[in-house]
Amino acid sequence: MFCPKCGAKNPDGAKFCGACGEPFRSAPAPAPAAAPTAAAPGAAPTTFPQAAPTTGKTLPKKTIAIVAGAVVVVVAVVAVALTLFGGGKPFEGTIDIANAQLVATDTSMTVRANGEAMISGSIDETRHEGGSMIYELDDIMFARTDMSAFTDVDVTVAAPDGVNSGNAVGEWRCYMDVRGTTSSGEQRREITVLWADVRDDGTVAFLAQEVDSTDQAAVELLDPFSDDFDPEAGGANVMTASWDKNDDGTYTFVNESGQQATLTITPSK
Q1: What is the pTM of this model?
Q2: pLDDT tens per residue across span 129-139
Q3: What span, in angstroms and rounded, lies between the C-alpha atoms of 77 and 189?
């Protein structure tokens, strides 16, 4: 027989567990079986599924604790895997800085300046990579009339994962490649790069630059989504600033000239 408290094996008929001292109680005598009742004429006899026989052995508490701990570890590993490999959640809400605003929904993204929409597009694809949520935009529309005929447009935007909780720390990236024919018949291609690295130490490096599309080496070095991205080696004008987080959750950026700008992140959910 096995101890119901610690699971240790004991001789049959023992009154106490030899391992933990737990007293054994005699099992109650089984109740007499009820007399069978006759089935109604013509009725099929009622049958019930039989329970599987039990051994009378219970798991020791130590074993139960080990099993429970293993379950917790598995759940934690799954949670980490979901976070690292595709668990990032796309941002929905508004991001304001100075006189510019980015508005993101589950299907579209719009950039406004001085309250007017300057560029907008539908979100064609989202993916989670290296602590960032990356958006591929499609069906781009421009407010600038000189760009209204540009139909071949690639726009990729990335925001750090923390933006969902109002945290600005991380890399912000945008790469816009626009090709087309102007109303005067001129063939044009414009590549615009926007990049900011908001660091934990209270500093930020950033650039906003148009890239000469005929200089393929510069295009590679200044594409923030390229493995070769190196803004300083690409000859770009990388600027620096400092930042502080305010009590209301906004960020204040101060550049080298002392100019200030406030960043406000407002998730919609």
Answers
A1: 0.64
A2: 888 999 999 98
A3: 47
